[in-house]
Every structure is written in structure tokens, then in C-alpha cells.
Design goal:
Length: 238
Amino acid sequence: MKTLDIYEELKGNAYPGRGIVIGKSADGKHAVTAYFIMGRSVNSRNRVFTETEDGIKTEAADPSKLSDPHLIIYSPVRVLGNKTIVTNGDQTDTIYELMDKQQTFEQSLRTREYEDDAPNYTPRISGIMHVGDGQYNYAMSILKSADGNPDSVERFTFTYSTPIAGFGHFIHTYMGDGNPLPSFEGEPKKVTIPNDIDEFTNGLWNALNEDNKVSLFVRFIDIETGKAVSKIVNKYSK
């Protein structure tokens, strides 16, 4: 698979929607993830990421402008033991709750499908990172309609059991802007991952479309110790 420069990939797409990057730092010391949200409407843009005890949540930047919390207010990141869950919707909670009951990542997502936002039928994208005992692996998932047909759901899971230092995978909701929005196609894109969290955060944020970007979360987890360092960037403030 061709390796892409994540920054150039983002610069070339004015509206990738919501996106998840998971990989391994170039020095091999950190498990890395990033999650971003974008918006075209006032309701979608009226959001910020805030920290919680086990991750982050989305909140309204200006509660008076929140017209519909459905599909935009959720917890994108939660931690369950040595597992970090990253998704673009409330399936974060589904994965957390069912994996806590000993179901697998894939089994948990079999209870969900694409979002109920016709005519877009936005895909649900999810990631799971396992970091423990000096070991690291991750998986990614996409639940989508069959070429926009709401009568058929397609489920794809991609597993990366031995991540390579300096590389990761990028999955997002839309191939670009449009009406209806065209869903992501194919397997997660192979991208490069740097060593430095500030470099990665700044590079991603600067590459996202200025008009449409809303919030960005980046986390580096030390594979040996499990210690995590995170960064949040919000375009709009509370």
C-alpha cells in the first residue's frame, strides 16, 4: 500500500468530515492516535472537545446555539483498562460497555450501524488501541451503507497486530464535500507518524480546512509505561 503524507492528504480534501488516525511513533516508543471533527452547519461547528476522567467529550461552544444534540454530542475517546477507544459517535459507549462484558471490539459493533442522517447515512468509524506489558496493537472499523442504500449495512474491521514504527492508518467519514456527502471507500490509508506530539498536533491542525475544522485531539501513549500525554485544539471557545 502506498504511504501517504497525512498533512498533504488533509490539505487535498476540504471536507473529510470526522477522522481517526492510529499508529506508532517513528521512534517506536509511543502508541499514537488523533481524532478530529469538522462541520458545515452552525450546529456542527458549535462544538469543543473537553477532557473527562477517561477521555474526552464534545460540548456546545455556545449552548444557546445548540439546535440538535443528536449525533454531535458524544464521547469520542474513552479508556477501559489498557484499551483506548476512539470513535466518531456514541458507539464509543457501546464498545466500552460491551467490551467491559467480555465481548470483542467487532462483536460490540455488530449491535450498531451507520448514522441515521439521511441522505448522507454517515459511516460510523471506530478504533481500539491495546497497550500493555510493553506490547501494542490496534484495530479500526467502519460501518456504512451499501453505496448510499439504507437497506444494506456493510461492516469492515481492519486489524494491525504488529504496528510498524513511523506508520499508522487514517480513516474518515467522507471522500470529500458533496450533497449527499460521499462515504469513505476502501481500507484505512497508510500514513506517516512523527515522534513529537506538538509537531503532529500542529501539522494536523494546520492541514485541516480553515473554514470547516472544529476540534482536534491527539494522544501519545508510552508503550512501556502506559503513560499518556494528550493535546486538544478547539477553533471555537466556550
